[in-house]
Amino acid sequence: MTPPPPTGRVGLVVNPTAGRGRGTRVHSRVAGALAAAGLEPVDLSGADVERAVANSRAGLSRGLDALVVVGGDGMVHLGVGALAGTAVPLGVVAVGSGNDVARDLGLPVGDVEASVAVVCDALTRTAGAGVRRLDAVAVSRPGGPTAHWYMASLSCGLDAAVNERANAMSWPSGGGRYVRALLAELGSFRPYGYKVTLDGDVWQGEGTLVVVANTPSFGGGMRIAPSAEPDDGLLEVVLARGLSRAGLLRLFPRIYPGTHVRHPAVEVRRARSVVIEPLEGAGATPPVAFADGERLEALPLQCDVHPGAVGVLVRREAGGTDRT
């Protein structure tokens, strides 16, 4: 039997800078495909992140059956921030320069038509797709109200410093900018001082990496927490003790396949709540934290996992179940 056509209002948020402007170019294709499937696309995009978030929340207050974001991990970050704790699911059209969340969830990457088909199939409850309830992570000042949400990972080690430097560079494009920024950071690097409290247990001292992960990948394919599961109610915390510059150069390539977790300087712990603070008198001051590739703020910060806080439209064979 042919399933009935989907009906409903679908918020659409497009990042105009995603994939070197590809987000803008695919806007009409996504909106047209949603309309052709019988859905009502509602454009909630904004000139900047703040406006897009405000538009998304306004759209939710008027009623949406789903929110679809077009871009990379930064747009997923935006969608999670708008939807955490609601029953409205998130659809992802992954056409950004970094699409780690989409890859980790088995969603199409760089294929607009396939991505829209997942959204439409999920909203019609066909056998191919559904809603997967995933954990989201609330970020706050320790003991304070939630200031941010994220889906993939928060980092506040050398990788965050490299991210900050790379974002300020205009050359070269793509991964070459990250490599250039890494080499520049290594020139003046010394380990940072951390106090990390994981469900009451304390890890402290000089460190190189502190990553609080909900999904396996970050940074365009680096398997920072290869055993992380986004729906197990736990965070994977990757901690690396202080290393020399030569040691770091040997460690970083191992992050891509995820073999760094077997390095003797690296520990992986699991927790539901993580507080990260600078440790005075030990090492350099840690850099500003990044979550899902988006700049947040300086330490101290607290990360708390919220099981099943966000529903994502996925293909059933990627691990989703139809709960719509």
From TrEMBL:
The keyword Zinc appears for this protein: no
Domain DAGKc stretches: 5-143
Family, similarity comment: Belongs to the diacylglycerol/lipid kinase family.
Descriptive protein name: Diacylglycerol kinase
Co-factor(s): Mg(2+)
GO terms of molecular function: ATP binding; ATP-dependent diacylglycerol kinase activity
GO biological process, one term: phospholipid biosynthetic process
Keywords, sorted A to Z: ATP-binding, Kinase, Lipid biosynthesis, Lipid metabolism, Nucleotide-binding, Phospholipid biosynthesis, Phospholipid metabolism, Transferase
GO cellular component: plasma membrane
